[in-house]
């Protein structure tokens, strides 16, 4: 691609000799034709304006090595990079349309239930885990191998260019994409000295070569491009490290309770394959209070507006406690972990007395919102140690429906009409018998196993009571009572640590800077030639060569010429302009047509 | 509290009135552009006829019919500034060396007057439009980017703003006027009819200063990428037209196509315009995604989670990267690269409309 990149400029001048190594030019199609038609021309002048790989991949010679080399050249060519990029974006599409295990496992389950023909096929193709599937990995791994295969030689080449010096002036400056000339009374030597000063002042790298000054600028473009591509690799590695060593766990905490960062305390926990579970950072925190507010009017009534958890946290086993708040967009950062607020709900505080009048249970019980947006929540109260009115051991269980803003209608039954605690009501059913928690099998704390329980009845109907805060309901037959003392809130937190975040961010920043340099900086060369004129003074010629997208090159050349004319003022400019136009040797179309 | 709410409601109404007024003025601008094209065309026909019969006005920039490789094969256009040395420039070998078309007015003064009126009306419409967006922002007391109605109105404001900025900078982009005003009208029409949402506050997860950064960058990127896409599309048409002209033995473009195409800039200029626009916003789009990742990290605890919106931003980004690579690859420049650019913009559009409407993910709670 090198040759085509400079094709516009170089081919116009009749020489696209941009093959970085040799300067012999190797191109395809028009560009190659243009080159061959040329004899002298630019020579090395147009070479090495970029470090892009050589697109010429000769057919493999004999043997395995020949094929291997051919394959490697193919893989590291721009063309293949382009195709792989295209495949990468194509391959990413299904993951956005088909449910992904890593994003929403529930949805995947539902999908599998609904599509019994398609699901196994998808499963085989890795469609539920696109971004960790074999084929998706193959695409990006090939791309990154190609990238590395591309970066390494380009970096060497660029280093070589930095050590080298701007190439000397081509034979005919008139063939370059921007050209100007004038005649001056100043001596050629003085003109060239002035030219050297002029371009140096503008931070060109320059040197004097024969009767000309060669100058070059904009190396940062290539540097930026390399930085960008290297940064992509850094980002990929950071991303990989992040998923291998990440740890992430969820915890529900009721107001007043605390949490210490150990595996047993989590409600759920998952970690990357290389994470050592004994390595959890020691810290803890306590939830003191929770603020939530909701839109009260308008079409979006009930939409949450603020969530804020008031906490105190400590580092180490028993470090000093510090107060802080956690909000949706403001996680707590502690000991290399981040603590996010991910959800909240209500925890009715109940007191259960048994048949003896003793308090068998007292405390808040977390109820889970049902996703109606108004926090209609369900939960259960399990009372394992109770006695009935005869003093016999029994167990009590309650199924509850909590409604922060209670309403009752015939079709929906009891439900909530607003998420805040405007008119809280707890509706309970009660059971007695065996909770089944002694069997040793872990139980869902949000469900009541009623297989060995009997529901209380009252006057032939199932027992059911609506409780307002402060109200007590007596169980039938003197079995006890349940009181709604009040309502607390709970919040769920996600604790996560993902190493490599800093690297990912650094890589992203470097990529951005490199990209900007690569796209906004133009690499260009300028030559100034001064030859003795008939009758004293000299003829000054200036020409510029850039890569194809160098819109400002003529402007810059004119600026330079103006600056140089301070030292070498023009005389009889008109004449030269005409002269030059008459015997213009390089009609660019010639080259292109050949 | 209620007073404030009423004031906000008032503001929201003002905003709606302004948006509707802007649409009315854009419609006038649209008509003026049409007049420019139609009337400019008529006299253009006459001028071409005159040129053909030899009494032509020479090859002044505005007058030359777009005849490729005719005489001026050297592609020389000196840029002479007073007291500055003349720099002779040479265009690319292999490219057609076709001069830019004269613009919609075709050098016709009457047509040009309509064109100027159209631009003035566009400026006026844009001011009203910007006022509408501002009023909306005041009414909700936040950045006006909380739902698709607000995205859409802001998006077209950015598109027109970018276009007017280019005009102010003296870039020859009046050819963008008609397609732009047309799509802005469509976009606003869609916004006020289908996407309209009462002004309101944001859910807490959207309430972050990263909203300002991430979403404003996304909207600006989108608006400017849209200009690039228009340039690319016109490039494809114009390129086909030029290649037909270059091959006199083949099928020649029809009268209507010629009359439109010959007034556009040359394929090379359109291509260059599209490339520059895309290249300039590509880093901004990159930054948009990075900012989004930072925000996601703060809000959801992971910087990248393959959420549909994230996936499509990534796809769009890779597609534009592929386009930039294609531009630098032999055999892929020109038309093939242009198709890639259009594909990339289609990805952007899908991310903007398709994902919000058809796919559910974490980003979908803004309300359509
Ligand atoms: C990971 C995937 C890659 C991405 C996202 C990517 C992205 C980009 C972007 C956005 C540019 C535009 C900058 C510019 O035009 O100067 C660029 C340029 C370039 N890329 Fe890549 N690239 C990737 C892989 C590769 C590979 C594998 C190669 C080697 C074959 C490569 C070689 C180049 C070269 C030589 C340029 C400079 C083009 C020019 O001179 O204009 N890139 N890349």
TrEMBL record, chain A:
<protein>
    <submittedName>
        <fullName>Cytochrome c biogenesis protein ResB</fullName>
    </submittedName>
</protein>
<feature type="transmembrane region" description="Helical">
    <location>
        <begin position="226"/>
        <end position="245"/>
    </location>
</feature>
<feature type="compositionally biased region" description="Low complexity">
    <location>
        <begin position="7"/>
        <end position="19"/>
    </location>
</feature>
<keyword id="KW-1133">Transmembrane helix</keyword>
<dbReference type="Pfam" id="PF05140">
    <property type="entry name" value="ResB"/>
</dbReference>
<feature type="transmembrane region" description="Helical">
    <location>
        <begin position="80"/>
        <end position="98"/>
    </location>
</feature>
<feature type="domain" description="ResB-like">
    <location>
        <begin position="78"/>
        <end position="557"/>
    </location>
</feature>
<feature type="region of interest" description="Disordered">
    <location>
        <begin position="1"/>
        <end position="52"/>
    </location>
</feature>
<feature type="transmembrane region" description="Helical">
    <location>
        <begin position="502"/>
        <end position="521"/>
    </location>
</feature>
<dbReference type="InterPro" id="IPR007816">
    <property type="entry name" value="ResB-like_domain"/>
</dbReference>
<dbReference type="InterPro" id="IPR023494">
    <property type="entry name" value="Cyt_c_bgen_Ccs1/CcsB/ResB"/>
</dbReference>
<keyword id="KW-0812">Transmembrane</keyword>
<feature type="transmembrane region" description="Helical">
    <location>
        <begin position="134"/>
        <end position="156"/>
    </location>
</feature>
<feature type="region of interest" description="Disordered">
    <location>
        <begin position="564"/>
        <end position="594"/>
    </location>
</feature>
<keyword id="KW-0472">Membrane</keyword>
<feature type="compositionally biased region" description="Acidic residues">
    <location>
        <begin position="572"/>
        <end position="587"/>
    </location>
</feature>
<keyword id="KW-0201">Cytochrome c-type biogenesis</keyword>
TrEMBL record, chain B:
<feature type="domain" description="Cytochrome c assembly protein">
    <location>
        <begin position="145"/>
        <end position="359"/>
    </location>
</feature>
<feature type="transmembrane region" description="Helical">
    <location>
        <begin position="337"/>
        <end position="355"/>
    </location>
</feature>
<dbReference type="InterPro" id="IPR002541">
    <property type="entry name" value="Cyt_c_assembly"/>
</dbReference>
<keyword id="KW-1133">Transmembrane helix</keyword>
<feature type="transmembrane region" description="Helical">
    <location>
        <begin position="311"/>
        <end position="330"/>
    </location>
</feature>
<keyword id="KW-0812">Transmembrane</keyword>
<feature type="region of interest" description="Disordered">
    <location>
        <begin position="55"/>
        <end position="78"/>
    </location>
</feature>
<protein>
    <submittedName>
        <fullName>C-type cytochrome biogenesis protein CcsB</fullName>
    </submittedName>
</protein>
<dbReference type="InterPro" id="IPR045062">
    <property type="entry name" value="Cyt_c_biogenesis_CcsA/CcmC"/>
</dbReference>
<keyword id="KW-0201">Cytochrome c-type biogenesis</keyword>
<feature type="transmembrane region" description="Helical">
    <location>
        <begin position="17"/>
        <end position="39"/>
    </location>
</feature>
<keyword id="KW-0472">Membrane</keyword>
<feature type="transmembrane region" description="Helical">
    <location>
        <begin position="209"/>
        <end position="237"/>
    </location>
</feature>
<dbReference type="Pfam" id="PF01578">
    <property type="entry name" value="Cytochrom_C_asm"/>
</dbReference>
<feature type="transmembrane region" description="Helical">
    <location>
        <begin position="176"/>
        <end position="197"/>
    </location>
</feature>
<dbReference type="InterPro" id="IPR017562">
    <property type="entry name" value="Cyt_c_biogenesis_CcsA"/>
</dbReference>
<feature type="transmembrane region" description="Helical">
    <location>
        <begin position="273"/>
        <end position="296"/>
    </location>
</feature>
<feature type="transmembrane region" description="Helical">
    <location>
        <begin position="151"/>
        <end position="169"/>
    </location>
</feature>
<feature type="compositionally biased region" description="Low complexity">
    <location>
        <begin position="62"/>
        <end position="71"/>
    </location>
</feature>
């Amino acid at each position: 691609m090198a040759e085509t990149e400079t094709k516009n400029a170089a081919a116009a001048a009749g020489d696209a000799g941009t093959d970085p190594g040799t300067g012999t030019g190797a191109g395809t199609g028009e560009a190659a034709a243009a080159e061959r038609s040329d004899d002298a021309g630019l020579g090395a002048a147009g070479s090495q304006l970029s470090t892009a790989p050589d697109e010429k991949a000769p057919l493999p010679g004999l043997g395995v090595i020949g094929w291997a080399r051919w394959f490697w050249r193919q893989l590291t060519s721009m063309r293949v990079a382009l195709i792989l990029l295209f495949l990468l974006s194509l391959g990413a599409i299904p993951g956005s349309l088909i449910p992904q295990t890593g994003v929403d496992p529930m949805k995947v389950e539902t999908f599998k239930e609904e599509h019994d023909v398609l699901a196994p096929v998808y499963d085989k193709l890795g469609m539920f885990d696109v971004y960790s599937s074999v084929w998706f990995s193959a695409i990006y791994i090939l791309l990154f191998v190609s990238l590395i295969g591309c970066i390494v030689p380009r970096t060497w080449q660029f280093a070589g260019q930095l050590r080298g010096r701007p190439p000397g002036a081509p034979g005919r400056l008139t063939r370059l994409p921007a050209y100007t000339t004038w005649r001056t009374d100043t001596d050629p030597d003085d003109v060239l000295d002035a030219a050297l000063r002029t371009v140096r002042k503008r931070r060109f790298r320059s040197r004097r070569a024969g009767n000309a000054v060669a100058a070059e600028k904009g190396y940062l473009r290539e540097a930026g491009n390399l930085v960008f591509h290297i940064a992509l690799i850094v980002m990929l590695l950071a991303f990989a490290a992040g998923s291998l060593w990440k740890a992430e766990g969820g915890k529900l905490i009721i107001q007043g309770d605390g949490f210490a960062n150990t595996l047993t305390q989590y409600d759920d926990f998952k970690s990357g394959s290389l994470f050592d579970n004994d390595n959890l950072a020691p810290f803890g925190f306590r939830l003191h209070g929770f603020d939530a507010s909701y839109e009260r009017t308008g079409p979006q009534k009930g939409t949450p507006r603020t969530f804020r958890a008031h906490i105190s946290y400590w580092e180490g086993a028993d470090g000093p406690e510090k107060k802080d708040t956690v909000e949706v967009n403001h996680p707590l950062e502690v000991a290399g972990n981040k603590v996010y607020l991910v959800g909240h709900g209500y925890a009715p505080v109940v007191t259960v007395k048994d048949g003896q009048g003793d308090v068998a249970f007292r405390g808040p019980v977390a109820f889970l919102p049902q996703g109606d947006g108004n926090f209609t929540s369900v939960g259960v109260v399990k009372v394992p140690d109770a006695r009935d009115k005869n003093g016999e051991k029994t167990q009590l269980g309650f199924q509850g429906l909590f409604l922060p803003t209670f309403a009752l209608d015939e079709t929906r039954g009891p439900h909530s009409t607003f998420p805040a605690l405007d008119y809280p009501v707890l509706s309970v059913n009660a059971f007695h018998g065996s909770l089944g928690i002694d069997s040793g099998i872990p139980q869902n704390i949000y469900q009541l196993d009623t297989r060995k329980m009997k529901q209380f009845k009252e006057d032939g109907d199932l027992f059911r009571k609506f409780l307002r805060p402060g109200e007590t309901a007596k169980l039938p037959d003197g079995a006890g009572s349940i009181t709604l003392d009040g309502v607390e809130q709970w919040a769920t937190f996600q604790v996560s640590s993902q190493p490599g975040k800093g690297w990912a961010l650094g890589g992203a920043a470097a990529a951005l800077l490199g990209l900007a340099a690569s796209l906004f900086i133009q690499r260009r060369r300028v030559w100034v030639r001064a030859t003795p004129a008939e009758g004293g003074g000299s003829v000054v010629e200036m020409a510029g060569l850039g890569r194809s997208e160098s819109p400002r090159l003529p402007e810059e050349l004119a600026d330079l010429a103006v600056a140089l004319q301070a030292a070498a003022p023009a005389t009889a400019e008109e004449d030269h302009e005409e002269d030059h136009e008459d015997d213009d040797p390089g009609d660019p179309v010639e080259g292109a047509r050949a | 509290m209620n007073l404030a709410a009423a004031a906000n409601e008032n503001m929201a109404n003002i905003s709606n009135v302004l948006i509707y007024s802007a649409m009315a003025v854009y419609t006038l601008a649209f008509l003026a552009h049409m007049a420019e094209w139609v009337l400019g065309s008529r006299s253009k026909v006459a001028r071409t006829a005159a040129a053909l019969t030899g009494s032509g006005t020479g090859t002044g920039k505005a007058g030359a019919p777009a005849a490729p490789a005719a005489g001026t094969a050297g592609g020389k256009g000196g840029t002479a500034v007073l007291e500055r040395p003349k720099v002779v420039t040479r265009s690319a070998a292999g490219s057609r060396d076709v001069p830019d078309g004269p613009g919609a007015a075709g050098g016709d003064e009457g047509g040009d007057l309509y064109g100027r009126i159209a631009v003035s009306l566009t400026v006026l419409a844009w001011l009203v439009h910007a006022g509408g967006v501002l009023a909306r922002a005041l009414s909700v007391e936040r950045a006006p980017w909380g739902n698709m109605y607000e995205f859409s109105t802001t998006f077209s404001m950015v598109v027109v703003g970018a276009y007017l900025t280019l005009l102010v900078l003296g870039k020859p982009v009046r050819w963008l006027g008609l397609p732009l005003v047309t799509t802005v009208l469509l976009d606003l029409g869609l916004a006020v009819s289908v996407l309209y949402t009462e002004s309101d506050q944001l859910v807490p997860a959207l309430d972050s200063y990263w909203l300002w950064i991430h979403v404003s960058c996304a909207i600006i990127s989108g608006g400017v990428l849209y200009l690039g896409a228009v340039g690319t599309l016109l490039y494809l048409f114009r390129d086909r037209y030029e290649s037909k002209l270059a091959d006199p033995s083949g099928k020649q473009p029809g009268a209507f196509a010629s009359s439109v195409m010959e007034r556009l800039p040359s394929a090379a200029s359109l291509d260059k315009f599209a490339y520059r626009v895309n290249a300039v916003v590509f880093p901004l789009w990159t930054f948009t995604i990075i900012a989004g990742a930072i925000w996601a990290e703060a809000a959801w605890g992971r910087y990248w989670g393959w959420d549909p919106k994230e996936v499509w931003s990534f796809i769009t980004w890779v597609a534009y990267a592929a386009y930039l690579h294609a531009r630098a690859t032999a055999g892929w420049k020109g038309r093939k690269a242009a198709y890639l650019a259009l594909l990339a913009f289609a990805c952007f559009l899908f991310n903007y409309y398709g994902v919000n409407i058809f796919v559910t993910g974490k980003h979908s709670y803004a309300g359509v």
